[in-house]
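Hi R.,

Here's the chain you asked about this morning:
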Amino acid sequence: MESKQRILVFVLIALLVATATHIVSAFGQDQVPDDVFSNESYYHYFYDERCPVCQEQERFHQEVLREEFPDIEINSYDIRESGSDERLEQLSEKYGFEVERQVVPMTVVGGNLYTGFSEQDGQEILENVRAIERGEEFEREQDRFVTELPFFGRVDIRSVNLPVLGETDLTDSVMVPFLGVLLGTLDGFNVCSIGALLLILGIVLKLGSRKKILAYGGAFIFTTVAVYGVLFFTFYGAVSQLFGYFGVIESLIAFAAFFAGLMAFSDFLKFYKHGPTCETTSSKFISDIRVKVTKVLKNPKAGLTSTLGAIMLFAAAMVVVELPCSAGFPATYSMVLGSLQIPFYLSAIYIIIYLFFYMLIELIIFTGAVISKEIWFSQDKAVTWLTLIAALILLGLGTYYSNILSLII
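And here is the predicted structure, written out as tokens:
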């Protein structure tokens, strides 16, 4: 457990440093000269010196493009310099394309937008330039995610053949929230959080009051989803700073999914052998809070405010301390959302969908307890086998994004 916490702390510190560096660099650069904006060249290139894929495109410019067109004028814009985003907006208005988020590399050739760079992109950019130099129009026929594969021909690497669902595009408007529903539900079968709720409900049920069951159980669930939601949005905001580099995006998603999948599979093996257990409860910090909450709940003289405060503190502590064990789920989904370049409000909707299904099993348990004054949930087999399903799905996502990475870079 301590090693998992150390890993999480290291990752969070790295993300905060990356975010701070991004912000400082953005304010520390000189403005782009106005005369650059007045240039009417048809070739516009947005880059970042730290971007490895941009370096690939720079070599393409020097070794391929300038070899055939030595006099071609390339307008280059470092995205860290103020004014580059305004220039991109001017180009989008002029040529009619939309950019939800500025990423690198990004190239505009005669009004055609190229996001990311691969050998296929380079060939298409070259054909685009040739057409412009001949005075001809050029219409894009290929997509960054479409590639030629042996025996299969042209295929869209965003699509994956899923059981029951068949051929599915993981970036479309249906699959993105579906992935949130799936991961949120699996994340919700959390042995630690469910165990804590059962502990509180078990004590409150003995009081025989539906009002107290509703108040105390509701306080626990509300605090859990609120704290988890804040952490989720914070993580999404931090990692979004890294989503300016194609190739890096896919690498992060693949790593997060593989790591989370391996951790889930390790948990499955332990659960299968010994039954679902929560390592968090062995923490002295959590044990002390649990004892205090139990005393407050059993104390007939305890006031409503002090009791609710103790329960909410217990719920918040459980979420924070247990986060290293389940962070892979929200981390993977956050990165998937970030890779889609969708508006923040849409990402927020998808995250809220995830959070709802994350809390769904606890809401069902809670509602059943309020109505029947009984706890019907037995988590041993359900949690064990759902943990295996979660591991397989996460490992599958890791494999999927690794395949995309190998084709893009």
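One quick note: Residues 26-144 form a domain with the Glutaredoxin fold (CATH 3.40.30.10).

Cheers,
M.
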